[in-house]
Amino acid sequence: MKFTRAQVRILGAVMLAYTAAYVCRTNISMLLSSIIDQFSLTQAQGGLIATMFAIIYALGQLVTGLIVDR
Predict the structure, then answer these.
(1) How far apart are CA 44 and CA 65, in angstroms?
(2) Vertex 44, ends 40 and 50: CA angle to 5°?
(3) How far is it, in rounded angstroms, from Cα 34 to Cα 57?
(4) What three-state secondary structure class fits 42?
């Protein structure tokens, strides 16, 4: 199977976005206390940051799963 140039670009962009999301998701727990202190956030606001990363990561999994199935 031969891919078009556009398909290769889309695949590369999806892989880059997934990699960035994975790295951020795995490192957010270690950095969260520093982020809370640096920006004077409450624990609830810090938890919201971690929750948003998890939700975005999950949505990315759904989207990339659909792309792979095609």
Answers:
(1) 31
(2) 95
(3) 22
(4) coil
Enter the DSSP assignment of 4: -
Rounded CA-CA distance 42/36 in Å is 7
**Residue 24 CB: number of other CB atoms within 10 A?**
13
Q: Where are the beta strands (DSSP E) in 1-70?
A: none
Comparison of pLDDT for 6 and 22, the residue scoring more: 6
> Does the global pTM surpass 0.70?
no
Sign of CA dihedral 17, 26, 67, 8: positive
What is the arithmetic mean of pLDDT over 47-69?
85
User: Rounded to an integer, what is the distance from CA 29 to the centroid of its chain?
Assistant: 14
29 — pLDDT class (breaks 50, 70, 90): confident
